[in-house]
Amino acid sequence: MAFSVKGFFMFLLLLVCGGMLANGDIGFDTNYNVTWGFDHALPMDEGRQMQIYMDKYSGAGFKSMKWFGSGIFHMRIKIPVRDSGGVVTAFYLTTEGDHTQDELDFEFLGNREGKPIILQTNVITNGDANREQRILFWFDPTADFHDYKILWNHHQIVFYVDDTPIRVYKNNEKIRVPYPSRPMIIDASIWDGSNWATDGGQTKIDWNHAPFRAYFQGFDTISGCTLDNSKRDVTECYASTYLWNHQEYWQLNSTQQEAYEKVKREYMNYDYCTDLQRFPTPPPECPLSAVVIPS
Ligand SMILES: *[C@@H]1O[C@H](CO)[C@@H](O)[C@H](O)[C@H]1NC(C)=O
Ligand SMILES: *[C@@H]1O[C@H](CO)[C@@H](O)[C@H](O)[C@H]1NC(C)=O
Fold first, then answer.
1. Which sites are catalytic (predicted)?
2. 24-285, which class in CATH?
3. Which of 152, 259, 260, 269 has the greatest number of CB atoms lying within 10 Å of its CB?
């Protein structure tokens, strides 16, 4: 009897350990490095979760050790609760450098208590950052972790929130629309964006509510084509050996397209493509039939 009880507990122990290993969530240190605000970055749960926080002394950021030339990049994120106007939490791919960088951005723009947090995306090419889109959430992004994902292949770049496409940037190089084509790293950070992020910079950070804490998970194997940073282009990463380069990833399917249209109809609150004051002639990548956003 005693033996079988002991055996049962051994069995339980094996189950628990096996579960941990099978979980596949390799620790933060395997793929990422904290890059700034070292004392404002707290690994948790054996590196499966990273908290980065901002107070009036510093924010913090981390990035992948490797560079990539295509892939599906995701992060599970829970953004700061409470009065977070002016606080920007970001998850993005970037070539790094100023003025000529390519970058694919998720930027969570904090807000005053009770006012909506906004998700801004941007596609920056050669330093040109004039492609902002902003949407509202259909859930509370401060309450739970949600999955934020960027697909990048030779045909399109798609931003997803929990598998719902919220932005598509097609490769229109044929009509001379720039398309990111240099190796990028994965980056995440929390910083003071009070000069622009909330109400065009009018809402400042209320430091009484600091620290502002953002949580990240999903540091497991990165689904990306790794490339040496010195490569000038990413052509070799467009090979069909990679899943995300397969034809079904070249465009949204009908279900995805429908979900995307719904987001544009119901949740979009800014689109540079329809900002005629700023761009009397919409940039060439903007669809002619762009949905008009009610102001
Ligand atoms: C990342 O951290 C590791 C371990 O601390 C270090 O060896 C490596 O040089 C760092 N890499 C970069 C790109 O900073
Ligand atoms: C569209 O793609 C999604 C995600 O891969 C998939 O779950 C869904 O079944 C596809 N729908 C159609 C109609 O092919």
1. 103, 107
2. mainly beta
3. 152
- 161-170 confidence digits (pLDDT tens): 999 999 999 9
Q: Give the Cα separation of 177 and 127 in Å (integer).
A: 14
19 C-alpha to ligand 1 centroid (Å): 29
- Residue owning the nearest CA to atom 13 of ligand 1: 65
**H helix intervals, the chain:** 2-22, 28-31, 254-266
**The pair of three-digit structure tokens given for residue 65, joined into one six-digit string:** 């050790």
Contacts with 227 (C-beta within 8 Å, 6 or more apart), sequence order: 67, 68, 69, 183, 234, 236, 237
Under 8 Å between Cβ of 151 and 252: no
pLDDT digits 0-9 by tens, 36-93: 999 999 999 989 999 999 999 999 999 999 999 999 999 999 999 989 999 999 999 9
Which residue's CA is minimally distant from atom 11 of ligand 2?
255
Name the residue ranges covered by the structural domains of the chain.
24-285
